[in-house]
Amino acid sequence: MKEGIGVEERLFRKSDKPSEDMSCNWHYKKSPRYNDFASTDASGKWCIFVSPADVDQEWNKISGAIESNQLMCAKVSTALRSIGRDGHVICVYTRDWADRQDLMRAREVLQSLGFVKELGYKRDIDTRNRIYGSGEWYLRV
Fold first, then answer.
1. Domain that holds residue 61
2. pTM for the full predicted model
3. Which stretches does DSSP call E strand in the chain?
4. Which residue pairs, CB below 8 angstroms and at least 24 apart, start in 57-65?
5. Tell me, what CATH number does 20's domain have?
6. CA torsion angle for 81, 13, 20, 88 (degrees, to 10)?
7. How many domains does one find in the chain?
8. Which family does this protein fall into (predicted)?
9. For the segment 33-56, what is each residue's pLDDT rounded down to a tens digit?
């Protein structure tokens, strides 16, 4: 007799697709060229908000750009992290938020991938210190 998938297997389901993964909060991807990257007070990220229906396709675009060394690293929220939220977030990192040239280079790569709507850039130090809204340093491009 064939048995169905158990409740525990469904609740903690692991998947390569962010839209289906219930085993962790984030999927991460780093370029081999930038393998030493770690979040610091100087680093920051472009924040891309996407719908559950589009997250896998959009993550594949970002992942491909990382594999071809166009972008340094990124993370995407999974189905587990997105419970109770409107959608997913993809964070595309840069090493130094004060390096405007690198910020804009990464933004241009994102535009070439089809992310043409306005995006926000947030410093990691503000995220770590839980500074949101009017108190945070935030760039919109």
1. 15-30+41-140
2. 0.86
3. 26-30, 44-50, 73-77, 88-94, 120-123, 138-140
4. 58/90, 58/115, 59/18, 59/27, 59/90, 61/113, 61/114, 62/29, 62/90, 62/92, 62/113, 63/29, 65/109, 65/113
5. 3.30.760.10
6. 10
7. 1
8. Belongs to the UPF0696 family.
9. 877 788 899 999 999 999 999 999
